[in-house]
Amino acid sequence: MKIFKNIITLLTVFLFTACSKDFLNRVPEDQLSSEAYYQNLPQLEKGIIGCYVPLQNFYNGGNVAWTLGLISDEFSPWKNQSNVAVAFNIDAFTKNLTFSQAGIWSNAYVNIQRCNRMIQVIEAGDFTVIHGEEALLKSYLGEAKFIRALNYFILVQLYGDVPMVTKAYEDPNEAVGIGRTPVSKIYSDIIIPDFKFAGENCRLRNQLAANQLGRITSGAGYTMLGKVYLTLKNYPEAESALKKVIDSQQYILLPQLASIFDVKNENNQESIFEIQYDETLEDGSTYQRWVGYEAAPLVGTQGSNESIWVSDKLIAQYKATNDLVRLNTWIVESVINPANNLPIKDPFPKKLITLNTGLLNQNNNFIVTRYADVVLMYAEALVMQSPARASEIINEFNKIRTRASMPILTAAQLTQSVILNERKMELAFEGHRWFDLLRTGTAITVMGAELNKIIPATQLLFPVPTGEIQKDPSLIQNVGY
């Protein structure tokens, strides 16, 4: 897969590049950014596919997945390697202006720009739509809106107030001066309506051909809408959105844990939305280069970068609770060094990595959300309205536990704390844990206990990248930086 790797500054006119996996193999030629190009549905589809491409970089390597695992209690910096200052300062909650993860910010706005372009083109309607294509057009629009909302949802949780850009600017300088829009307005004006539109208008999973299963579906829209409402503590609305996913009967809990993240079983029926990677053109996932410093060369052909490994405390919790099926299925505690036949104890997640491929880039997709996430969120939405409602979801909840050979729970045992812990053990390394801690107001307590220190509240947000403030002085820095 040919991922768009060039670093593009905020709101530059986008470029498209080609991909070779599933639906991503039909991306337009470079620099097709003009609205004049889009004259029919096939051309519009090419533009929509281009909106997916930045997500590959967004979740790859040291970006979102790496950052969210490190700032939570899932990952730790590799040993005491002094040259990985970024990892140590994020992990220790001692971030300063140097550790803003500027790539996340800039990549998000590149993606937002692409989505704004296609939303603008479709809503203008200056093209030909054949009778019967109206629903497909709305589905394409829903895909663009979903991706825009996903970028904003991650941005506001990491940085707080951010610029709300809804126009596809031809000149990036036109965006200067917007300033930082309140989080509440971004939720009400973009994130909620965009995810809702995707839920209402994108296709169902069973309406997609096998080579199209990487596309955004109605289920993905309603899943993320439910997650947003849960984040905002609007539990009735979260329940309503998530119930639509459950009632659609488009998704199931796979019977075997190992099959969920099997590289040969990608886009399976438990997966609701995943980022597509393909190593064919040496442009797949590079995640394996960022974990397990000494083990990384055995997974890929290159050494590690800003290295991390699975937290010792997380492994200890799996063992203390006898949660060994999930531990052994999803975590590698050590590998054998073929040079000396000795073990290298650099624990890393199997969920994101395939061992012994000898590849710089791997074929492993990144699952943004799956049906187990829906079940656990739905359980929380019910319990937070009334503990008695746990009985409505306890059977499905227990399917997650029995699949992992864990004892079943009674409805009376199902509290928010129990659900949060189940999410920790079931969804580790999938980018949920840090946002779960923020959402439930437990981040300072949990991470303080994890690190045996007091976590300043100002460290819950990342600093706005200095380079963005230099380009646009209307962006005020977060408190504490």
Describe what you observe in this structure.
With 481 residues, this protein is mainly alpha-helical. The chain has a domain at 1-63 and 101-202: Alpha Horseshoe (Serine Threonine Protein Phosphatase 5, Tetratricopeptide repeat). 44% of the residues lie in helices and 5% in strands. It has a two-stranded antiparallel sheet with strand order 1-3. Helix 6 packs antiparallel against helix 7, helix 7 packs antiparallel against helix 8 and helix 8 packs antiparallel against helix 13 (371-385). The longest helix is centred in the first third of the chain and has 26 residues, at 134-159. The radius of gyration is 22 Å and the shape is globular. The two termini are 39 Å apart.
The CATH architecture of the domain at 1-63 and 101-202: Alpha Horseshoe
- CATH fold node name of the domain at 1-63 and 101-202: Serine Threonine Protein Phosphatase 5, Tetratricopeptide repeat
Rounded radius of gyration (Å): 22 Å
**If helices are DSSP runs of H or I spanning 4 or more residues, what is the number of helices?**
18
Q: What is the 3D form?
A: globular
**Average predicted confidence as pLDDT:** 89
Beta content comes to 5-15%
Going by helix content, strand content and strand pairing, the class is: mainly alpha
The rounded distance between the terminal residues' Cα atoms is 39 Å
Please give the order of strands in the largest beta sheet: 1-3
Low-pLDDT runs of 5+ residues are 1-20, 26-32
Keywords for this entry:
single chain, 481 residues, mainly alpha, Serine Threonine Protein Phosphatase 5, Tetratricopeptide repeat, two-stranded antiparallel sheet, two-stranded antiparallel ribbon, 5% strand, globular, disordered N terminus
